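As a warm-up, study this chain.
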Amino acid sequence: MTKKMEEEQTQSVNPSEGDDINVSEFLSFKKGKAKVVACKKNEAAGPSEDGKKKSNAQPVDLLPFLQREEKRPIRPRNPPIPVTPEVILPIDPFVTPEFPRFSRLAHWMDLRGIYRVPFYINGKEIEKEFFQKMDDAENNLNKEHINVAFEMLNCKRVEQGAWFRNNNLPAACFVPVKFLEVVGYAYESVRKPHKKKQTLLEGCVGELVKGLIHPKKVWLEDVDVIYGVIEDKLSYHYIGVEIQLMDNTITLFHCGLPKANIKRAFNQIQELAVLISAIKMELLGEEVNFEDISPFEVKFAEGLPKTKFPYNCGIFVVKMLECRSLGLKSMANINDETAMDLRSKLCCEIFDQFMDKYFQEGQRK
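Now compare it with the structure written out below.
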């Protein structure tokens, strides 16, 4: 019985004696069948421009997951920008970094898989896309870029504190982009106070003003000057702000915005002038009544560089505030021709400031 079953199974997989199939004929049959299937797929794909039937299938070597995105390495494009004689090298806002510093950043961005080294700023991981977008000529800096740049400038002020004191520069700090926006939300509550006593020094505003969170500087004690930005959300432009707590003034830094954009932002800044004055009154222990508030004086800085391109607004504002905080009067090196080099320099400085020192030392060897 078992032998009979084996014979039946053999016949089911092997050709019978009457079936004389030539191997070459069998292969040609398979090829013909494959051509028929391909023709049916072409018919389903529809006619091409020249009227012939062809497949819309993408060549295998062009599939996205097989393509390695090639990015231009971050490096200077123009001749090096010379040293600024008025300041020391670690805080020079213009001098082009040495090439090894760019190469370390490029090396980190090329690391993948198990070789990848995490990069954190204030507990938040920074991806390589952060630097790619910052160094992209057609992208304006976003809020994250500006916040990280301000945090770096705060660190430099601490590290080079002796230089700032020796040059009689006022104690200052840079605040996150969101801060001035959040302060503005309180305008209506100050203008029309509720029966319950309102205070501006609550939540994240109070924590920052009292030095409980980054940059951990107490207003009127540790710092007298505040630097930040106001964002015009309709046009995606930034206006730099310098708040002099002792002189009761707010100075604006813009890079040639259309008048309509300035007017929208100016209305917001006028409200901010009232609120900053109210915050100062609270810090000094005075009772805040809307009728008794003397708004800070608002004025525009003069002789500022202008840009023709909206995507250069962010880097212009960051560099203008940096120069102002260093007491530099000349900002001639901030222009459309040097904008890309200033972006690359900022990428390199941020990486050097916050990357783990062991990674840095390993790349110097």
